[in-house]
Design brief:
5-stranded mixed β-sheet, 374 residues, 26% strand, alpha/beta
Length: 374
């Protein structure tokens, strides 16, 4: 293998180098976000000093579907140059034996001398045990570097492991005067840049959910239609207490190509929906409404880590009132709706103080504000 290009002058302080390389590791981990099944998308960089200068000699990101893990791939790429290297890993290496030995043992066997991680894995089979294995083998371990940033990236996995349900992102497109649109009328609230970013957000989630009213009124596809990312459309869920989804809707008509599930209190789906490949998830109901906390527990038990709630006002309000929204993606458009508009349950001026604004972006004439639960 050709000598890697130096990353920085040898005089760069170790703390600054660690911070920068962990940032690169976190960015690399995002490459497969939403594609790794029940496992998180983890990044690993193996860094070796050659002629006194740091260079990446191996890299890995959790493979699509969840295996192999990032550490194994980085070790394989580095070969003998893994010996004496520093490993930057976005999540604590696993410590449990499965079909293959744990990644912590792989790093030990490869001769790595130091491991820097961002977050301790809350999985009971790991939860500090990976770090303990490394330290017992004489490897230096530094944990918690850029932890807050890593937590945002790993939020779905962490939420499922700690709380037994997927991370919920509420996406809202709000007009300049605080409306989601007009009942029975299609209104473009945001522009092309914002709509493209919504598709990217879909690609990063395991599932996407709307209510039957939105499915009926807007007849959405809820797919990813960005070039090159079409295969990353999330599983689609429709809250539909009485299983009244129109068999002629786009969601029903494409159920055989993109997983589509009606969440309902009904005992069985109508035969036309079954024939189209629409799946059924029977949920508890309370006072005529589907029980959202229990629903999310069921989705978490199925392995789902992230869910994007995309419509409409009643569904958004229900998730907010139940305290089930972890992240709010608030797109503000320049459009003015005026009389007859559907009020948004959340606007920039009414976001609860339980949420912190973690990022704001200007998207042409629009703005995106990302809020995360404190």
């Amino acid at each position: 293998m050709a000598k890697a290009k130096p990353l920085s002058p040898a005089s760069e302080p170790q703390a600054a180098l660690d911070h920068r390389l962990m940032g690169a590791c976190l960015r690399y981990a995002r490459r497969h976000r939403g594609l790794t099944g029940t496992n998180p998308s983890v990044g690993t960089l193996l860094v070796q000093f050659e002629d006194g200068e740091p260079a990446i000699v191996g890299r890995g990101v959790t493979a699509k579907g969840g295996r192999p893990h990032a550490e194994r791939q980085a070790i394989e790429e580095a070969g003998n140059r893994a010996r004496g290297a520093t490993a930057y890993v976005s999540l604590e290496p696993c410590a449990h034996h499965g079909a293959t030995p744990p990644c912590a043992q792989g790093l030990i066997d490869a001769g790595v001398k130091r491991v820097v991680t961002a977050w301790i894995d809350p999985d009971p089979r790991v939860d500090g045990k990976g770090h303990a294995m490394l330290r017992a083998a004489g490897i230096t371990v530094d944990a918690g570097l850029r932890a807050q940033e890593a937590a945002l990236d790993l939020a779905g996995y962490l939420n499922r492991k700690l709380h037994g349900r997927p991370q919920v992102t509420l996406k809202l497109a709000v007009s300049s005067d605080g409306f989601l649109g007009v009942a029975g009328k299609e209104v473009a609230i945001t522009g092309d840049i914002s709509r493209a970013l919504v598709h990217r957000l879909r690609a990063e989630h395991d599932g996407i959910l709307v209510g039957r009213t939105t499915a009926h009124t807007d007849d959405p596809e809820l797919t990813v239609r960005l070039e090159g990312l079409q295969s990353r459309s999330p599983a689609r869920f429709i809250l539909d207490t009485n299983a009244k989804l129109d068999p002629n809707s786009k969601l029903a008509q494409t159920a055989n190509s993109v997983p589509t599930t009606v969440i309902t209190a009904a005992m069985t789906l109508p035969e036309p929906l079954q024939a189209l490949g629409v799946q059924q998830l029977t949920a508890d109901s309370h006072e005529g409404r589907l029980a959202l906390p229990e629903l999310l527990e069921d989705l978490g038990a199925s392995g789902m880590s992230s869910l994007m709630v995309e419509g409409g006002a009643e569904v958004a309000r229900s998730f907010m009132e139940a305290g089930l929204v972890d992240t709010i993606a608030l797109f503000e458009g320049a459009t003015t709706v005026g009389a007859g508009g559907i009020p948004s349950p959340v606007t920039l001026d009414s976001v609860s103080d339980q949420y912190q604004n973690v990022r704001s972006l200007k998207l042409g004439d629009d703005h995106l504000h990302l809020f995360s639960r404190i």
